[in-house]
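Q: Predict the assembly, please.
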Amino acid sequence: MADSKKSNVTRRMLLKAGAAMPFVGIAAPGVLAQAPLKSPTKVHDFMTNADVAKAELEGQLVFYCHENEPGTAGIMEGFRKDFPKINTSYVRAQTGALYNKILSERSAGRFDVDVIQLSDLAPAVDFQKKGGYEQYLSPETGAYKADHLSTPAGSFFWTGVDPAGIAYNSVKVSAADAPKTWQDILNPRWKGSISCKISASGLQFVQWYTLRKLYGAGFWKEFAKQNPHAFDSRVQLFDRLAKGDDMITAIGEYPAYILFKDKGAKVEFVAPTDGLPATPLIVGAVSKAPHPEAAKLFVDWAMSKRGQAWYQTNPNLYYGSVRTDAPPMPTGVRLGDLKLLYPADWDDYAANRDVFAKEWNGMLGL
Amino acid sequence: MEATQALVSPQGPTPHIEVDRLELYYGGVPAVRGVSFKVFPGEQLTLLGPSGCGKTTTLRAIAGLEQPTAGEIRIDGVTVYSSEHRVHIRAEKRGLSMVFQSYAIWPHMTVFENVAYGLRVRRTGAAEVTEKVHHALDMVQMRSFASRRASQLSGGQQQRVALARAFVFSPSVLLFDEPLSNLDAKLRADMRIELRELQHRLGITSVYVTHDLEEALAMSDRIVVMRDGLIEQTGTPDEIYRLPNSAFVADFVGSANLIRGHHRPDLDGGGLIALETSAGHIVYGMAYGRPVGTEPVVSVRTVHLRISTEPPVAAQNVWRVPVEQTVFQGDFTQVHVSWGEQHLVARCAAMEPLAVGRDVYISIEPRHVVILGA
Amino acid sequence: MQPARSLISAQKIAGYGVAAVTAVLVLYPVFFLLQAALDVGDPQVRPPTAYGFDNFDGILQYPQILLNTLTVSVAATVMALVFGFVMAWILTRTNVPGRHLFEQLMAVPYYLTPLLGALAWSLLGAPESGFINQIWRALGGNGHLIDINTAYGIAWVMALFEGSVAFVMIAAVMKSMDPALEEASQIMGASRLRTMLRITLPLVVPGVLGAAIFVFAEMLGSFAAALVLGTPSRYYVITTAIYQLVQQYPPKIQIAAAMGVSLFAVMFFMLFLYRRIVMAGSYVTITGKAFRPRVADIGALRYVLLGVCLLYLFAAVGLPLITLLYASLQKIAVAFPAAGNWTLENFRVAVTMNAVRSALANSLLLGFGTATIGVVLMGLLAWLIYRSRLPASGLIEYVVMFPQAVPRLVFAFGLMWAWVVFPIPIYGTLWLLLIAYLTVFLPLGVRTIAGVMLQIDKSLEECAQMCGASWGFRVRTVTIPLLVPGLVAAWLLLFIASVRELGASILLMGPHSKVITPSIVESWFGTSSELTAALALIQTLVVAVAMIVLVAVTRRVGAHPVD
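A: Predicted assembly structure:
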């Protein structure tokens, strides 16, 4: 609050100065009107360029998210706690389906979404090209490296990272038999008892792309012989793992591992030394949003330390934060401690989308 | 073939209802194939015939519940249906009234409300409704049931309520669609008389449909006998009974023996016609103004055939024949005799049993031997 | 009396108005579905740039799916018929104790959604974690006793629930058979078995055949069981394949539409056959004279058959509910839980989840809306088709029958496309779901109300006519009061159907219009099975309470439920 008072005083002084010169008096308002927005205000403990009062007047936030139901509800819960006057509603679907949905709605002239979170960089870049994101530079942007923002900045940012290793049921699989490297998932002993995610999943795409680059195109063709079961959400994968329906999962997400371990499930996590494929979780305000101020407010909240803490500690999320000043995850591990595998060339990655979809769906019988 | 109107004595010069060359086909199936008759004010005309003859269809066409294919219907001089002029007035606008075979009592209303319905439709004032409904219920002796739920009534009680409902709003015409056929025999007989009395008291023109001969004979001023969508004969009950003009009517309206023969004009005389059967019997009968032709058919009512064990006094139409069979029927006994190449059936009042094979004398008065129309 | 010219009567206005509304409701989405199926241009561009039949060729790339669909449908139909026939025989032809109670109870599997059964049987029969298999292994068995994630597993669950539909149809056939026909056979000295084989069965066969065709058509379009049980083992049938194709990225909308249209064509043909065989043209089974069928005294065998009835109800209703309860009370559901595994947490979370509360509220609200508007709309339609003499009535009957031949999911597809371009913004709202429900329930509602309507003697209305009542007056004072029990029954049926609806809702839900049954499915795929079990039980409880309240209220009003 003190900061904004200071800026107001400064502007007032400018105005007074401007009024002294008759020409500037006419020109001054024009000049000031074209200045990039007003200065950021502080709300709770973070800075926002959104008009908080207006956002609360809008009273609504419509959120499209790839997360599973409790996860998406969890994110909304965090926002609503800080801004109770804003009612939240959401639609969740796996990234691929979600992106379908918003595109077809927009092509039919429907603009009902305020913020969208995707688990895949490729559709995010695509959406940016289509002008789907609102260009909004958050005052919190400074806390992020350029790699973790859109190019140019202002379309979206990385709200978290979801790394995946291998996980297995410790009752059915002894420590000796447990997989240690990525090649181990090709072991025929796991045939028919191994799970992965569906092709609409951003993380699955990243894993496919990065491991393919590491081990060659034959890797996944071998994997197909394992007759894996594919599912939509990491919770499902771990649910089956915990109950013994599958012995191992080829894409054991670290957040899910933490969650199920807390519940007392007999599951173990393996981080192969070659690295953990990880996908960024992308948040951005949508253009032509029905509640634009609320959208901007949410982006600022999500980017802030406060929002990031929520993302990182909520049991249904447990994301790893890429904020430069983020604390370690609840388990004590920092993202920086893990060897993360990202696609080196994001454009090549995006171009391979169709190849992946075809191969993966073919493997799954569709 | 229709008897000429000359035999009928109209009760008034202008008919109340006129049905003119009415035809009704369901899809390609004919139900009524060209029917014409008149109903005069205050009379009860009955449409009589076996099932499928088209009588109910004709009635419903008059009511407006069926859409005829051709013809005209006029009520009180107003055309309510005409195929030529494309007129069809809806049933609710014809101002008629009807009693249905199933009574059509509305189970969700009380007896009072059932009867009051027609008055309420006509927006009659509450006081008048109460008065008229009570009056109507009195006439059918159902006053004490006024507040009873209609679904709790017996068949006979429902029938009375249906009746009261039908005349409470003083319609000019009452249509009856076999209203007594669902009642047991005893009740039917009683209701027949009551209905007739009621009709006379109210003086309403009625068109009545039934397949029951006794009912038709007891209640009607005139009867129209129908078969297969056409009219066989129109006349008073007495005319139809005594002077049937076709084999069908003869046998339908009471039971009859049919005798075929060859006209013997040489034996005619004294107002009587003679015909000779193939077995050589000479039968004397009366023409009643009908053309005789060369091969006339005569009808003899079974009740007119006398059976006696002693030779009768009469000279003509007497034969001695063996008994084939007797059937005891309570009020009467049916005796089958063998006569030449055919059988004759006689209905006699209860008599001592006759042994099969035994010879008896049959005799028929010539005036009871009726020439049938062609 | 004035001569009648072609006056525009209230009757005609109501008739044509309703007909027009129905035609739009049904045909508008079908048009879009066909359009999508024939679209061979760029899928992102609408309206389509090019038309062709290539998509139908595309279907042939998935022969396994077609085979799967046939296998499951045939197996499920056979099983459902067996259940239905056996139960119908037992309950209408033998003197099993409690016959009438059981007849009422046979409707319960229909009220519980097949989704519930699928969830429960998944918990029971999954090869590794299924309770039955755990018990089997504890008893010393090897591997698994049953694997519910197979074609026969899916068929079993579908048959358990569709069995009650088959029962109703076959029981009706048995009740409409004149017992004198069998008595004649017995008097001539034929044994009971011979009578059954030579007289009863041949008489019953046409009706059973009709039921078979109807059930088969329903199985082709069924979704819930295949979704829950088939997806884990990648066993797809046409409906789940369509769902997956739509959810994929990039989506294969055109092939999905082509699949949908093909399925529609097959089902339409089956239902056409059904009408020919059973109903000789009319859509409603006209109950003629009802006979009282001969009930055989089977002595002590009664108690065995009683056991059979109880067993069926247990498998279809009791066991699933118990299983769900058992699972919902555990942290991680197993057959032999340790002491520390019990928890009420799942219920606490389920009840406090905002999404659940709003979904339940939406479902109940939508149920009320659909039932109330539906009864009026479908009542008018039933009258229009079966009682009025307007010339369009035959055509309208066909249009009303359309949605029966289209699987809900496929229809929702068309609805999605149709209403997203509609100028009035109903897309993504509860209104869209309302329209969808009204459309897909047309056959159900019209059939139910027409059945009751036809039982009302025409003469009751004709008599009102003869008393001078205009159409409006007599509909108000005679027709509607007599229809009330039937209308109430239809209302309840529509309420239940809309709360348990899955196929259409899952595609049409929006952020503000979540409903409960798809939410349970989403929970199954996105959260733990224990939480899902808790959710499913809560849904069942809420619906059961709503039903009890409604039935109690209508009993008070004086109406008696029509079977």
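Residues 125 and 146 of chain C are 6 Å apart (CA to CA). The interface with chain B takes residues 1-4, 389, 457, 459-460, 462-470, 473-474, 477-478, 481-482 of chain C (CB under 8 Å).
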